[in-house]
Recover the amino acids of this structure.
């Protein structure tokens, strides 16, 4: 009896301790679970706050600024080269130059005007087709299967119009070289005709009688279309091309810098 009493007392003391220990471990496990589940939430909120503090536009702006800065440096370098390559002063027109020059900045065409014995002569001068020494060597090395010949020297396209009041206009399409002027086309145009109408422009100039071709060359020469005129115009248009290119570069610089 005494021994059973002792065992019951020991058991009554041990069981509550085991129960309390188990409960305590459950509370610890619950606490650990709560903490571990809370930590990712803190990390997510911190990432959200970081993104809110440094928006993506800031990084894209930084990339854009660096790209624009690099582009500006290249443009500035090109401007420096363009300025250094320009001649100090454009060549003046020769004393015998018979035309008045109309040069609009930003345009690729220069217009010449002259009155000659009741005729109004207008010449459209286009940018020259430049041929360099490197292109000459390349053309010699390459075998061209086409029948079209590549020009071996620089040329200057011209459109010459001779008008007599309200009467039809005689229009020449010409190409000026260093020592000659070639007539590519010849047509008679009525200024009152609509642009939608396609008028007969005559045969190819090269198909005309040789004497007739020579007569038209003399016709233009008397009116001021001669090598001395076109050689000056060639240099003038090269200088204009350089000036227009420099202006174009400066406009690019202003746009990128803005």
């Amino acid at each position: 009896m005494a021994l059973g009493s002792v065992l019951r007392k020991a058991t009554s003391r041990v069981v509550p301790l085991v129960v309390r220990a188990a409960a305590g471990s459950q509370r610890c496990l619950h606490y650990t679970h709560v903490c571990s589940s809370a930590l990712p939430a803190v990390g997510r909120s911190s990432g959200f706050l970081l993104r809110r503090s440094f928006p993506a536009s800031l990084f894209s702006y930084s990339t854009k600024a660096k790209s624009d800065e690099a582009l500006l440096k290249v443009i500035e370098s090109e401007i420096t080269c363009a300025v250094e390559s320009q001649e100090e002063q454009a060549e003046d027109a020769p004393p015998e130059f018979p035309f008045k020059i109309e040069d609009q900045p930003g345009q690729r065409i220069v217009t010449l005007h002259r009155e000659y014995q009741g005729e109004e002569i207008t010449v459209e001068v286009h940018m020259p087709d430049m041929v360099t020494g490197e292109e000459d060597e390349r053309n010699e090395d390459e075998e061209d299967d086409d029948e079209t010949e590549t020009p071996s020297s620089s040329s200057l396209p011209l459109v010459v119009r001779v008008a007599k009041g309200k009467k039809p206009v005689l229009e020449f399409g010409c190409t000026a070289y260093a020592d000659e002027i070639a007539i590519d086309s010849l047509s008679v145009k009525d200024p009152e005709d609509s642009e939608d109408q396609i008028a007969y422009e005559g045969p190819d100039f090269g198909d005309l009688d040789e004497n007739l071709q020579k007569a038209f060359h003399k016709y233009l020469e008397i009116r001021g279309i001669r090598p001395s005129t076109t050689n000056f115009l060639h240099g003038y248009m090269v200088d204009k091309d350089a000036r227009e290119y420099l202006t174009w570069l400066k406009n690019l610089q202003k746009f990128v810098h803005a």
